[in-house]
Amino acid sequence: MKESEMNGYQRIMEAMALRKPDRTPVAEFIIDKKVYRHFFPEAESQLDLEIAWGFDAVGCGVRFDPVETLDDGTFIDEWNVTYRRNAEEVAHPIKGCIQSMDDLRNYTPPDPFSPGRLGRLPELVEKYKGEKAIIFHQRAAFMWSCYLMGIDNMLMNFILEPELCHDLLDMVLDVNLKIARQAVRAGADIIVLGDDYAHNKGPLFSPADFRTFILPRLKKMVDTIHDEGALVVKHSDGNIMKILDDIIDTGIDGLNPIEPVAGMDIGLIKEKYGNRISIWGNIDCGDLLCNGTTDQVRKAVEECISIAGKNGGHILTSSNSIHSSVNPENYRTMIETAMNLK
Fold this sequence. Notes:
It contains 14 helices and 13 strands. Helix content is about 45%, strand content about 15%.
């Protein structure tokens, strides 16, 4: 194949196979509407920007619809979790509904086969299959369990109520396994698992608790996706170095976003794990993309690609997501710089 013949799908898959495509592939999981509407005021979603700018992947997430909107502006979704809307694309959970084994026994989870559960995935597959990598975003077990119980309660109950935690995690995993199977059978090439495991200083839990409660379920999700024929990218914010060996041993195919502000060194990750996983990241979406100059952004992209893209296996993304405070012109510089580098 001549380099000029590569399309987005081929470019992403070449990098996922740890080879070097004609240029570093570009993807992004979340782009805030304030950013994409800066360029495309009538855009309905980030897809308009991704197609216009020639991104190598398109994607969507599993959909859990609101079932009730309250007078204070909060809403309750199909998991019976209450959220407060904010300036970002993703609302913030403020209240769950499971605090005891009785709560769990009386709880009915969302129907994984409900119409529309896969969101825009069928449309993306119909339009872009084989042309661009089709990415589907969902989770394994941890974050939805935290939403249902509250993250502080979940972490305390690893010690106080371990049986409750195991049963809750299994219930959530069962729903998500069924959705993952549907997504791959519907045409998704890559499943991104978005459970966050860490803050900037380290994991939210001990490595022992990770291995007890989270790792077996992550492994089951990864194996299921592979059995269905798709690839897996594991996303987690924060510094996950203490549990990274375990995560990679599950057989994931890629890691994202490798946050520099959390002490995640993309060069170290590339050196230590670049022969096992593709590297997705990691342009700083904090100070750099918000407040930096376009020259600073350009230099950061060039440096990132020179380090992470050496011998292939790198997909360029931000260090988390393109949130509402990102300077749109800095984001355009990030994308244009990557696409013009060979």
